[in-house]
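Let us work through a complete example step by step.
Step 1: write down the sequence.
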Amino acid sequence: MAKSSKTTKTSFYEVVIQGKPKVVRAFLSGLILGADQAATVFYSFDEGVYHEGKAERLKELVGVRTKDCHVIVDAGTSALIKQLKRRIVAETGLDITAHRRIRSASVYFKFHAYAPHYNREIVDLVKQLPAGLKLGGFKHEEKHTPDAKGVEAYASVHHYEACGEATISGPVDLVIGLKRRFADFPLIDSDDVILKLA
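Step 2: predict the structure and record it as tokens.
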């Protein structure tokens, strides 16, 4: 991901480019370097962003689907791609098949912990979200079974269990950042990021 030096809120766009992911990544890196501008780029295949629509699934089933790469870019990079679209198609062989503004994004997660300190770490993480992210439908349950104390880790009953689930929504860059943080917690299982397009 190219880093942005801006701290202000920015718009993001999903750009769908037909081409192999390595080729698209190399092209966008060259475009951004050549333009000498700060950029934020997320590749759906790297970040776990869901992008398969009904039409794409149908094309895959009948065998006419071509390789495409879904990329999330900041407003400046989006404007550059729009400005150069005809040249990109004519000179690179890559085709831009969609270019849509992202209104927001969300990610569903769940967790299961067998020690109070792991539970606290996870609950603290989701209760202290960065500004702009919202926690929705948070369900959390703790269960103490004193009779099971000392039972081995793989037992069906544990002396302490905690589980929870929720959906977090907000700006796509913040949701992707949080999904990356979830990856540091093996007890958290998160789904793909869902985009809400304009």
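Step 3: interpret the result. The chain has two domains: 12-102, 105-197.
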